[in-house]
């Protein structure tokens, strides 16, 4: 198969545990792009928090794209044109705030370059470290959040968050898309949003057949794009549900799993 597009989750997939791209992976991605491959970064991260990686990998030069906020935004790296934007309403945000208060968990949302939080906490600080975005603590969360938002996130210890997810699923399942990204991040988006749907939209826009797309990920929010792609790849460190959904398993994020995919399926450096 002549694959033309490679779609990569970031944390624990493209990125090592120290949140950097290995030198081998960087070289392989540049080499493949020079041969015509389109690289798409697909993450729950805000677009702002992906820009430095696009620069490092020269995505603008080679026609790369972002699928950010778990699929709520599709953005061209070359000119920052937004191809897709799907939000949740202010009323939905207010409902989520009330539910967060009821269940005793933290909640936050985003502007283009800031994290808005009802109360600063250790988990929001992890998000700040990951994204590089400043945190604004809102004295009146409902009054200070935007009229629409790309997503909301509830945060707490993973054991508690699993309980909250179970409790909220019948409450929001017909109104919002809900997924755990990291164990302490429970995200809520417009139900029209997920990585798989946005990947299909982008591939259609670029006239790339889905059978010529490879998607690589490690966590639950990657399953839809792994199933949608012609070849779905699970990282060696992926959760079991991702491995079950995938067609192929590569090495883990500490051992150049993404580079191995590029070598085997784009550069034909490894036929084993």
UniProtKB/TrEMBL annotation:
Alphabetical list of CDD domains matching this protein: HAD_Pase (cd07516)
UniProt key word Hydrolase: yes
UniProt keywords, alphabetically: Hydrolase
InterPro entries attached to this UniProt entry: Cof, HAD-like_sf, HAD-SF_hydro_IIB, HAD_sf
Database matches in Gene3D superfamilies: 3.30.1240.10, HAD superfamily/HAD-like
Any one Gene Ontology molecular-function term assigned to this protein's record: phosphatase activity
Pfam families in UniProt: Hydrolase_3
Keyword match Hydrolase: yes
Top-level division of the source organism's lineage: Bacteria
GO cellular component: cytosol
NCBIfam families according to UniProt: Cof-subfamily, HAD-SF-IIB
Protein name: Cof-type HAD-IIB family hydrolase
Organism: Candidatus Ruthenibacterium merdavium
